[in-house]
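ZP: hey, is the protoporphyrin IX containing FE complex queued? I don't see it on the tracker
AM: it wasn't, my bad. submitting now with these inputs:
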Amino acid sequence: MKIDLLSPASFAGGQPHGQFDWLRENAPVRWHEEPGGAGFWAVTRHADVWAVDRDFQTYSSEPTIMITDPLADAGSFGPYKMMLMMDPPEHTGFRKLIRSEFTEPASRLRSERIHALAKQIVDAVIRRGECDFVNEVAGEMPSFVIAELMGLPLEDGRELYKLTETIHTAPETLPPGAGGQAVMKMFEYGGKVIAEKRARPRDDLASKLLACEVDGRKLEDMEFLLFFLLLVDAGGDTTRNLLSGGLLALMENPDQYAWLMSDFEARLPTAREELLRWTSPVIYMRRTAKRDAELAGAKIKAGDKVVMYFGAANRDPGVFDRPDVLDLSRAENPHIAFGTGPHGCLGQHIARIEIDAMLREVLTRMTGFELAAPVEWLPSNFISGPKAMPVRFRAG
Ligand code: HEM
C-alpha cells in the first residue's frame, strides 16, 4: 500500500481511510518520509494516540504542533509562543487565563444567543432553495461565535475566518508566502483590537485577556496576538467542517438521516457524537519526543516528530464496533475528535452547542438536500472538510 500522509492529493476526497486502515493493522507507529524535512512517526491506533496526547513529559507540543509550520513563514515570534505549542506548567498558567470562559456552565450561558444566530443563518438562505452550504451556512456560525466572544462585529468574524482557511491550507497549493501573509493580516487586525479594547474595555474575552495577569504581570501585545490567533483559528473551520461534513454524511446515509429525523431531539446527542467521530475535522496534532521512547514496538528517538492521526484513531476496530459504519445511535463512543490530555479542546462545550443549534435549524427547517455540484475538499493535510458544497433543498 502506498502511504502518503503529506500530499494534499491524499486528502482530496476526505481523510485517507484506506491508508489509515492499512497502517493501524500493519504498522501502527510507522516512520514516514518528509521531502525537505526530517520525517515523522505516524501514529494511528486509538490507544497509542491517546497515550501520546496525555504523556506531555515524553511528547512535547514545542516547538510546534504542525509537521511543517506555516507560522514559521511569518517570521520569528522571538520568545513568544501560542498556548497550543506550550507544555505544562507554562501551558497550565496560560490556559487558566481563559478556562473559565469555556466551562460547560459558562458555555451554556451562550446557548440562547447561539440558537438565535443559527436561526438568523438559516433565515438568510432558506427561501433560495440553493446555496454553498460550507460558506453560506456552516462557516457562518463559528465566525459569528468567535466574533461575539471577542466582542467584534460579526462581519469581521467572517473576514478573520477566511484568513484561518488560508493558514490551514497546504502551502504548496497557495501562492508563495500566502500562509505567512494571512498570519500577518490576522496580527494587524489583532493590533487594532488591542487599541480598541484598551481604550474602551467591555465585557468580552478580548478585554478580559488584556486586563488579566500571568505571573503577576499583564500580557504583552504579542502574547495577546497569539491567543487571538489561536482562538480564531481553533474554533473556525473545525466547527464548519463538522457541520458540512456531517450534512454530507447524512446525505450519503439516508437511512441514518431518516432515523435521526424520526425523533430528532432525543436522538441528537448520540448523532452529534457520531458525526464528530465520523468527520474528525482535525486530522492530526504533532508532538516532538523529548527523550527516547518505545511506542507499539517503534523505537522513537529524542527529537523525532510524532504525529497523532485522530481520524485514524476514531475508526479503530479495537475500540469501535463496525467503525466504518455511520451509526447515529452509537451509545459507546469514546472518540477523540477533540483530542485529550492537557491540550484537549478547550472549546468543546461551545462547539457542541453550536453544532446542536445548527443541526436543529438546518435539519428541521430545510429538507430534500441534494448536491448541486460535486464536493470540493480542502487541500489540507491538517484540517479535513469540504471547501465548497453546493446544495439544493426545500423549506419544510
Ligand atoms: C467541531 C469542532 C472542534 C473540533 C473537532 C476541535 C478539535 C480540537 C483538537 C483536536 C484540539 C487539540 C487537542 C489536543 O492536542 O489534544 C483542539 C484544541 C483547542 N480548541 Fe478545539 N475543536 C473544535 C472547536 C473549537 C471551538 C469552537 C473553540 C473555541 C471557541 C476551540 C478552541 C480550542 C482551543 C483554544 C484549543 C487549544 C487548547 C490548548 O492548547 O490547551 N475549539 N481542538
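AM: back. The first strand starts at residue 29 and ends at 32.
ZP: great, adding it to the tracker
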